[in-house]
Each structure stands twice: as structure tokens, then as C-alpha cells.
């Protein structure tokens, strides 16, 4: 509410209607509304929450519609002063990197809400979910360091309550671990963030500001060596959130113990906060340091790919298997991001969306299996294909998308990432490609054990997918196929922003993108070579 | 007093200095109110259903706040000034802290009323003592002379010693009072010795003259002065519960009546920091290179010891005592910065912390139940179900203490981190944030205990969880909790009014006009 007041006071976006602000505020209002519904009427609280979630989804789609493709900069920028003496502002904007993540968030939340209702205490559950949604959208839209941190931190609270209140047996441990790990990273980020603002102000001789665009465009203000330290402070927070290899251990616990809706959101949206952070507050804010540390992060990404895949293969618990597969997928995204090539970055952004869709869908399916059988142990499940052919079919499509089968969405992202990273980090890409093979190993093997064969007594009565469940899965499956067959509209919108980002890194570091990476537009104009330098 | 006498000697015709009474209004209102309350209590019939004592106390504190407003404007128009022959200064710094201390009295009083009824300890004495103690705090906030500061410190402390032992039937309460008194008396002695050393080094106890002397002369041997710094720091460090002068805190907080702890953690701490900021940052500002390293390490120790030891406690009250040590470390970062930013960050922190911590101990008061003894973590099991609103209030306070965004606690931490980084103390900032993560574990543990035990409780003592003792939240305590929650979230959302006020409230030393 305050946010709305602030936005209107400071003058909204060019279009007049503060679309981005409403994307953040509407779910927050929904959380409040849900919390005010009488405790005795869980069904009405669910209805209120669903209405707000669907309305938010509509708003995010409206953002996508209003989004001008072919533009590299931030669009629909809204800005209003929040804290005067720190020059902190409610500064929102969207570009090709964030727009699809916003839409993904908007779409996944209502599906998670409908697809995996809680078993008790509907009201607080939905209220926390909506608050979480507000925070997640806020992270993707924030163009102010302070605002970003606020949103980045605030999502911990609802997720903590969701895991600890509605999770499975070991939920308290998992919730605590999740909160403390992330807060530990945030501690570094907060210090880094304040230091960035203070040193920037000192470097330019101007006033203190937390505005991302201002700081990112004054690259000379902070000495390169200092910027590397600051980058590390941010990187620790993001690496934990992603999670990258050595700091990933919170993820399997949190994902496994969280309620299904929580896992969907954790994997689908919250992990992207870290990878998105690397793009926006790594590459954009500290281009020189990003190029400097790229080998390290690429290596961690590749280790994550292999490690996640190997560990996933060994899992006995289906949900834990999916959780470890996320470690591998996120490793790919890190690889693409720090390949620092247009293709790699494009693939990373696309893969963030893909991973959200397919892993979200996988968690929903695992949740459905658990609902029916009250076990997630792979050894106790068998022959579900016979009992529930439709569900098996849906599972197959989703799984193949996660593996990266051509024609489905996962392939496009992984292909672009491997292509992009091959140009600058050949051997890392080669090793990373092994991860694709391993992915088919662990997922197909798990599928085989769970769905093939003759169902034993316990699994014979396995119920087929219900209509409601089918309706939840349908949009996800549709997106999987659509993005796999025709990713062009998405890539077209991502490309300009990504190219601008790579150019930004090139301008401010001694890194130059290999010319072959810029085939396409620039290759075509390469014939009259010295025509236009930039 | 020494400076005062010296001045009196210079101007022999003046027997007593001119006193501008309006400038002393807040202190006079508090002391006058305390005396009035004592008289009223002696005359009025006992056992009234209406909490007249509490109402009078709140009226007095609010009146003291009201007297601040015209002075705030006056300082804005004419600049800060000093009265009583330069021994008491009126600047926006002292006025800001006056409001903070009075606010902590108001909130603590609201909790005390219900507490005294529950424990069967009705009477005016606690309120009288609280008002007197707060008036000592006000004197500390505006003292421009080390002797006056010492007087304030003693007025503040002695009343609190008695308050700590107020619950006569609880052995722990008496134990707390004795411990606090003995250690407090020691720290006062250290403080006084420090005053003597500073006097020896500079020839005055008046802060204006001390600062003036230090600015104009270079000490050939600053050993005496540095020893004075150290001893003064002991005195202040004791009051604000900074490591290594903290060992009384857990015992005293645990033993004292809970609403009194709410005052100790907010009002007393604010008074201690008032002195610390004025004496060190302002007066000894030129010698910051001598004392900054000491404060740096005191801050580091407070941050870490407070956080780590808080986590291993099972008694919530004791754990909150350690967490208050951790918060003292945060505020010390503002002191350590020794800059205007640092001072205003510390003031912001004190104001925000007053509401958080007073609210926290308010909830603890209610949960403590009759006898004030139910402070184990297990006493909080299922509170989220039994008392959803009370539990929610505690969640807000705890999250604020953990520094969650959109609460005042986050901004408070943000400002001190900002101040520390401005003065290039990057590692201190990092240690502080990591200690915040450690202490977040404690806060989350309490929250988990309140909410997380649905099925454990159902199997083990499901009946007890639902039919457990119904907690009665007295109306006054309810009002105080609402005020604290609104302040905590309100400051978190719209920090500008408070932060700009804190920025204006820079301490200044002004020599006496006459």
C-alpha cells in the first residue's frame, strides 16, 4: 500500500498506469486480504488467494504484451523516492532479461496454488504464498540496490514459514538451514552493497545513491581491485541462492521437505533469484570483475553439472532426485552466464524459464504421486504406467524436457548455452555436455523404475490423473512444447538486452567476445569492415 | 561541578549561576512528577481498579515529551545553548534522546501495570523509581560536564537497582538486584576514576573546556588521558551491556521483573549511549585514533559474544539478554565510526530498538504468567495456536531484531553498517552482519517453538496445547504492544521522518553564554 502511494506520488510510468508496481503490490494486497478472511472458512480464503494470484498472472502477461521487443534498455520504468537521505527509490523496470522471469513467476504461482493445496491451515498458507510472490516479482523488477536487497531478503520469511509449517517430517531442520544459509549469503551482500554505494559516491564525488543504473554506468568510480572484492561479496549471496557447487547443501533438504507448492516455487522461481542476480548485479554492475572471475564461476558451474547429475543418479527418493537435478541444471545456467557470449547468456536466460517450467512441473507430478501413495521412495513405486497412463504420458513429456530432448524447451536453452560456452570455454563446454547425457541417465532410469513393469499390489490401485490436476499441468506442457518448437518470439525479446550486456562487459574490461559469437547481424555487416565501429 | 566552581571563582560576584528553568523542563517534569506521584500515592486509597499510578506516570512522561517540542524549535532557530553555567547543554541530540527515554518509560509503564496486578505488588513505588531513573537518563543525555554526567548516571542506576529487586517473593529478583548493585557500584567507581584522570590530563571536567583544551594543546604524554578514556569506557560499557562489561546482563535480565527489563534494555541503554556518544565522539573526537581501536574491539566482542551465547540458551529471557548485548555491539559500530553519520545511525538504532525490545519483553511479560517464571523455550510451544495475535506480535519483534527488511530493525542495521563502511570499517560491518545471522538462529528457534510444533504437540500433549493456560493480555499491555508493532513496521516502511530527525540531532558542545 505504501508502495502504491509512493509510486503515485512520484509519477508513474510513461503509460500512466503503474503496471510494474501493481505486479508487486497486488499479490501483497492479496496476502493481506487472504489473512483477513475468517479462519473458519478455508474455502473462501483459497478463493480469494486464487483470484489474486490469477489477477497477478494476468498483469504479468500484460507486462509481456506491453513489452517492446527489439529494445535493449529498461522499459516501463517507474521511479519514486522512498528514503530521501540515502537516495533509495522505488525504482522498477523490466528488460529482456527479466521480463520472462516475471511472467514465469506470475504463471507458476497460481498453478502451484491450485495444483498442490495444503492439508491444513489454508489461510496462512495462501497468504504466505502471495507475499512470496510479491517479493519474487519485486526482485526481478528492482532497479535499486536497496530495493533489490529488501525484496531478496523478504522472500526468506514466507518461504521459511511455508517449509516449517507445511513441510514433511524433517521440515524444521530444512527450514532453518534454508533461512540461515541464505541469510549468511545476504550478510555479505548487504556489506558489499553498502560499500558499493558509498565507494561510488566517494569516487564520483556526488551524493550517496543506491540507484543501480547510475552506479552501473559510472564504471570508473570504483577501483577495479575493490570492485572485485565487492563482486565477491555479491557472488557469495547469489552462489548460495543458485546454488553453486560447494554451497548447495541446503537445496536438497529444503526442496525435499517443503510442501509441493513450496518446492515448485523454490525450484521454479527462487533459484532464479540467484542466477538473475548474477546477471543484473554481477555482469551489469561489475563487468570487469565478472570477466575476471568468470573462469572460477564457470568451473563451479561445470562441477555442479556433473556433481548434481551423479548424486541425482544415486537418490532413492524421487523428490530428492529432482532436487539434485536442479543443481545440475543451475550449473548449466551458470556456465552460460559466465561464458560471456551472446548465445550463452541468451541460453541462460531461456534456460532459467525452462527450468522453472519443467522442474516446477516435475515437482507437481512428484507431489501427485506422493498424494496417492504416501511415499516417494523409488523402490516402493512400480508399474504406474499401467495404472495411470495419462499421468505417465505427462511425466514423460516433462521429463524429456528436463533432459533436453530436441523439440522440447530444455533443448533450446542447453544448446545455446553449450554453443556459447564452446566459443570461449571450450573444454568446460565439452565436460558440461556430459551432463546432458547423465541427465538422461538419471531421469530415464528413475522413470523406468517408477512407471515401467507390472504394478505390485500397493501400486495397482494408483489413481489416474484427475481433471483438476490435468488442467494445472496443461499450461505447463503447452509451454514446454511451444518453447521447444518455436522459441523465436522469446529469444527475440531476450537478445537485445543480452547483446547490450555483453557489450557493456566488453566496454569495461579487456574481455572481447570472439567474433564468431556475433555472427548474425554483425557478421552480415562484416563485409564493409570498418563501416561502423560500434 | 569542578568547572562550575572554577567559573564561580572567576566571577566572584555571582554566587549561583543563572538557571534557565525552561531549558531544564523535561528533567523537572519527570522529577516533579515522581514527587507528585509519591504524594498522591500516600493520600489516595489503595487497590483502585483503575491504574491511576500508571496513568499519572504516562501523563508525566508525555508531558516531558511535550516540553521537548518548543525547545526543539528553539534550537532550530537559535542554535544549541547551554545552561547552568555550561554544565547542561540543550541540543537536538539531548532532546532526541529525551524523547526516546520517555517513550521507553511509557511503554514499560503500560506493561508494568498489568504485571503488578498479576503479581499482587500494586503500589506507586515502581513508577516513582522509573520516573526518577529516567530523569537521571535525561540528565546524562544533556550533561555537558563529566560530574553532571556522573550524577545522572547514579540517579539512573540507583533507581534501577531497586527496580530490579522489586519482586520481593522471587529470590532471583533479589539476586539480580544485588548483582546489579555490586557490579554497578564498581563500574561507577571506574567511571569516577576516569573523570579524575581526564581532569588530571586536561584541567577541567567541563566537556566544552576539555574539548577546547585538547584542540588547542598537544599532550606530550597522552597516557593519562588514554587511561581516562579506558576507565570512562568501562563505566559506559557497563551501562550499555557491552562485552567485556556484560557479565551482569544475563543474570539481571533473567531475574528482574520483565517489564522492568523492557525499560532497562531500552531506556537505560539509550542513556548509556547518550553519554558515550557525547563524551567520546564529540568531546574526544580529536583523539579518535586513540579510542577508536578500543571501541572497535569492544564492538566486535559484543557482536560475537552476544550472538553466540544467545543461541545456546534455553531460557528465552536470558537469551534476549544476550541478544541485547549483540544489539549493543551494533550501536557501538555507530560510536566507532566517530562521524555525524555514525551518531545519527546510533540514534536511529536506539529509537527503533526501543520499540522492538520493549515489545519483545512485553510479550515475555505476558507469557511469563503469574510468578514471572515461564520463560523456557517450551513455554512458547503452540503459542501461535493459543494466542495468534500475541504470537504474531512477537514474530514481528523477533524478525525486526533479526534485521528483516520492511521492519525498523533492518533500517537500523542498515544505517550503522553504512556508517561503519563510511569510516572504512569493512570487516567490522561484515562481522556485524554475520553475527546477525547467528542471532537470527535464536529468533527463528523461538518462532519455530511457537508455530512449528503442530504434530509434535498433537501426539505428545495435544490436550495440553489446546486446553493450556489461557494467557490474559491486560488492556494496557495490549495498547503497548500495538504501539510497538506499529512503530516497528511503520519505521520500517517509512523511515524518513525518524532518520531525518536523527540526522538533525547532532550533538554539539556550546560554552555557557554568561
User: What is the overall number of helices of chain B?
Assistant: 21
Distance between the termini of chain A: 45 Å
- Measured by DSSP, the beta-strand proportion of chain A falls in under 5%
Rounded mean pLDDT of chain B is: 87
Radius of gyration computed on alpha carbons of chain A: 22 Å
Low-confidence stretches of chain A: 1-14, 523-534
Q: How much helicity do the residues of chain A have?
A: over 70%
Largest sheet of chain B: 2 strands, antiparallel
In the residues of chain B, how many domains can be counted? 1
Structure write-up:
Chain A has 534 residues and is mainly alpha-helical. Helices cover 72% and strands 3% of the residues of chain A. Chain A is globular, with a radius of gyration of 22 Å. The model of chain A is unreliable at 1-14 and 523-534 (pLDDT under 50). Chain B is mainly alpha-helical and 514 residues long. Chain B has one domain (22-42, 51-504). Chain B is 76% helix and 1% strand. Chain B has helices at residues 2-10, 25-43, 52-78, 92-119, 125-142, 146-164, 171-202, 207-216, 223-240, 248-255, 258-283, 288-311, 316-337, 340-367, 383-386, 388-402, 408-422, 426-451, 454-467, 475-493, 496-504; strands at residues 81-83, 88-90. In chain B, strand 1 (81-83) and strand 2 form a beta hairpin. The A-B interface holds A 2, 83-86, 120, 146, 149-151, 153-154, 156-157, 160-161, 164-165, 171-172, 175-176, 179-180, 183-184, 186-188, 190-191, 194-195, 198 and B 399, 404-406, 410-411, 414, 417-418, 421-422, 426, 429-430, 433-434, 436-437, 440-441, 444-445, 448, 451-452, 454, 493-496, 499-500, 503.
Amino acid at each position: 500500500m505504501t508502495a502504491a502511494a509512493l509510486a503515485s506520488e512520484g509519477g508513474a510510468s510513461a503509460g500512466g498506469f503503474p503496471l510494474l508496481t501493481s505486479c508487486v503490490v497486488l499479490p501483497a494486497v492479496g496476502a493481506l486480504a487472504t489473512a483477513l478472511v475468517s479462519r473458519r472458512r478455508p474455502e473462501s480464503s483459497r478463493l480469494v488467494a486464487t483470484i489474486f494470484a490469477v489477477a497477478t498472472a494476468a498483469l504479468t502477461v500484460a507486462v509481456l504484451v506491453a513489452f517492446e521487443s527489439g529494445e535493449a534498455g529498461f522499459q516501463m520504468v517507474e521511479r519514486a523516492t522512498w528514503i530521501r537521505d540515502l537516495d533509495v527509490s522505488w525504482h522498477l523496470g523490466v528488460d529482456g532479461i527479466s521480463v520472462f522471469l516475471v511472467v514465469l513467476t506470475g504463471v507458476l504461482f497460481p498453478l502451484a496454488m491450485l495444483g498442490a493445496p495444503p492439508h491444513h491451515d489454508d489461510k496462512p498458507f495462501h497468504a504466505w504464498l502471495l507475499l512470496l510472490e510479491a517479493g519474487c516479482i519485486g526482485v526481478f523488477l528492482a532497479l535499486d540496490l536497496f530495493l533489490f536487497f529488501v525484496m531478496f531478503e523478504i522472500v526468506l520469511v514466507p518461504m521459511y514459514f511455508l517449509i516449517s509449517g507445511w513441510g514433511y517430517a524433517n521440515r524444521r531442520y530444512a527450514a532453518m538451514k534454508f533461512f540461515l544459509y541464505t541469510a549468511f549469503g545476504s550478510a555479505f551482500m548487504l556489506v558489499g552493497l553498502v560499500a558499493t554505494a558509498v565507494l561510488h559516491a566517494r569516487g564520483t564525488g556526488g551524493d550517496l545513491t543506491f540507484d543501480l543504473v547510475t552506479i552501473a554506468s559510472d564504471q570508473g568510480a570504483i577501483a577495479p581491485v575493490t570492485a572485485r572484492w565487492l563482486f565477491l561479496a555479491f557472488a557469495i549471496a547469489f552462489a548460495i541462492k543458485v546454488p553453486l557447487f560447494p554451497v548447495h547443501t541446503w537445496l536438497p533438504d529444503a526442496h525435499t521437505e517443503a510442501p509441493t507448492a513450496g518446492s515448485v516455487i523454490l525450484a521454479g522461481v527462487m533459484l532464479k533469484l540467484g542466477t538473475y542476480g548474477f546477471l543484473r548485479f554481477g555482469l551489469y554492475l561489475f563487468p570487469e570483475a565478472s570477466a575476471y572471475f568468470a573462469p572460477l564461476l564457470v568451473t563451479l558451474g561445470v562441477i555442479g553439472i556433473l556433481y548434481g547429475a551423479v548424486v541425482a543418479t544415486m537418490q532413492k527418493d524421487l523428490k530428492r532426485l529432482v532436487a539434485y537435478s536442479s543443481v545440475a541444471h543451475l550449473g548449466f545456467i551458470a556456465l552460460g552466464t559466465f561464458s560471456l557470449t551472446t548465445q550463452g547468456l541468451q541460453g541462460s536466460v531461456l534456460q532459467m524459464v525452462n527450468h522453472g517450467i519443467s522442474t516446477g512441473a516435475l515437482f507437481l507430478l512428484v507431489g501427485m504421486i506422493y498424494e496417492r501413495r504416501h511415499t516417494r521412495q523409488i523402490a516402493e513405486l512400480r508399474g504406474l504406467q499401467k495404472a495411470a497412463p495419462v499421468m505417465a504420458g505427462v511425466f514423460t513429456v516433462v521429463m524429456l524436457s528436463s533432459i533436453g530432448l530436441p523439440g522440447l524447451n530444455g533443448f533450446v536453452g542447453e544448446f545455446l548455452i553449450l554453443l556459447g560456452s564452446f566459443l570461449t570455454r571450450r573444454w568446460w563446454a565439452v565436460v558440461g555436455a556430459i551432463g546432458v547425457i547423465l541427465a538422461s541417465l538419471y531421469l530415464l532410469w528413475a522413470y523406468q523404475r517408477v512407471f515401467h513393469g507390472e504394478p505390485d499390489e500397493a501400486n495397482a490401485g494408483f489413481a489416474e490423473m484427475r481433471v483438476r490436476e490435468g488442467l494445472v499441468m496443461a499450461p505447463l506442457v503447452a509451454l514446454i512444447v511451444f518453447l521447444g518448437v518455436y522459441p523465436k518470439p522469446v529469444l527475440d525479446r531476450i537478445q537485445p538486452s543480452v547483446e547490450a550486456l555483453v557489450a557493456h562487459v566488453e566496454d569495461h574490461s579487456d574481455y572481447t567476445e570472439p567474433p564468431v559469437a556475433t555472427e548474425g547481424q554483425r557478421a552480415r555487416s562484416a563485409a564493409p569492415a570498418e563501416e561502423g565501429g560500434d | 561541578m569542578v568547572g562550575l566552581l572554577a567559573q564561580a571563582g572567576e566571577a566572584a560576584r555571582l554566587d549561583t549561576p543563572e538557571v534557565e528553568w525552561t531549558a531544564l523542563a523535561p528533567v523537572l517534569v519527570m522529577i516533579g512528577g515522581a514527587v507528585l506521584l509519591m504524594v498522591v500515592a500516600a493520600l489516595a486509597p489503595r487497590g483502585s481498579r483503575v491504574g491511576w499510578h500508571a496513568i499519572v506516570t504516562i501523563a508525566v512522561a508525555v508531558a516531558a515529551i511535550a516540553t521537548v517540542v518548543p525547545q526543539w524549535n528553539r534550537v532550530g532557530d537559535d542554535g544549541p545553548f547551554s545552561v547552568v553555567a555550561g554544565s547542561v547543554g540543550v541540543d537536538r541530540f539531548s532532546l532526541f534522546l529525551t524523547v526516546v527515554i520517555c517513550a521507553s518509560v511509557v511503554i514499560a509503564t503500560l506493561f508494568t501495570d498489568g504485571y503488578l496486578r498479576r503479581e499482587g505488588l500494586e503500589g506507586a513505588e515502581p513508577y516513582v523509581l522509573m520516573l526518577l531513573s529516567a530523569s537521571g537518563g535525561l540528565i546524562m543525555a544533556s550533561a555537558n560536564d563529566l560530574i553532571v554526567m556522573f550524577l545522572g548516571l547514579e540517579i539512573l542506576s540507583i533507581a534501577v537497582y531497586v527496580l530490579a529487586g522489586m519482586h520481593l517473593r522471587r529470590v532471583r529478583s533479589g539476586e539480580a538486584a544485588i548483582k546489579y548493585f555490586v557490579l554497578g557500584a564498581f563500574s561507577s567507581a571506574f567511571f569516577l576514576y576516569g573523570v579524575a584522570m581526564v581532569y588530571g590530563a586536561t584541567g577541567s571536567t567541563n566537556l566544552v573546556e576539555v574539548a577546547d583544551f585538547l584542540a588547542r594543546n598537544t599532550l606530550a604524554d597522552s597516557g593519562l588521558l588514554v587511561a581516562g578514556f579506558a576507565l570512562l569506557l568501562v563505566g559506559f560499557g557497563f551501562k550499555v551491556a557491552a562485552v567485556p562489561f556484560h557479565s551482569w546482563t544475563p543474570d539481571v535480565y533473567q531475574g528482574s521483573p520483565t517489564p522492568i527489563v523492557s525499560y532497562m534494555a531500552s531506556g537505560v541503554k539509550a542513556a548509556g549511549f547518550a553519554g558515550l556518544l557525547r563524551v567520546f565522539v564529540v568531546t574526544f573526537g580529536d583523539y579518535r585514533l586513540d579510542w577508536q581501536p578500543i571501541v572497535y574491539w569492544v564492538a566486535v566482542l559484543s557482536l560475537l559474544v552476544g550472538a553466540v551465547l544467545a543461541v545456546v540458551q534455553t531460557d528465552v529471557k536470558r537469551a534476549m539478554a544476550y541478544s541485547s548485548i549483540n544489539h549493543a555491539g551494533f550501536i557501538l559500530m555507530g560510536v566507532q565510526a566517530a562521524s555525524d553519520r555514525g551518531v545519527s545511525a546510533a540514534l536511529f538504532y536506539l529509537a527503533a530498538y526501543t520499540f522492538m525490545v520493549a515489545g519483545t519483553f512485553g510479550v515475555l511479560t505476558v507469557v511469563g504468567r503469574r510468578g514471572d517464571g515461564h520463560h523456557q523455550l517450551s513455554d512458547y510451544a503452540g503459542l501461535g495456536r493459543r494466542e495468534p495475535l500475541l504470537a504474531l506480535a512477537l514474530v514481528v519483534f523477533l524478525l525486526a531484531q533479526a534485521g528483516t527488511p520492511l521492519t525498523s530493525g533492518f533500517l537500523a542495521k542498515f544505517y550503522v553498517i553504512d556508517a561503519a563502511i563510511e569510516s572504512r570499517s569493512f570487516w567490522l560491518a561484515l562481522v556485524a552482519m554475520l553475527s546477525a545471522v547467528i542471532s537470527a538462529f535464536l529468533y527463528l528457534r523461538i518462532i519455530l517453538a511457537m508455530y512449528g510444533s503442530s504434530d509434535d504437540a498433537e501426539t505428545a500433549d495435544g490436550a495440553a496445547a489446546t486446553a493450556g493456560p489461557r494467557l490474559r493480555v491486560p488492556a494496557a499491555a495490549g495498547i503497548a504492544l500495538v504501539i510497538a508493532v506499529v512503530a516497528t513496521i511503520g519505521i520500517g516502511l517509512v523511515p524518513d521522518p525518524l532518520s531525518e530527525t536523527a540526522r538533525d540531532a547532532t550533538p554539539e558542545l556550546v560554552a555557557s553564554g554568561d
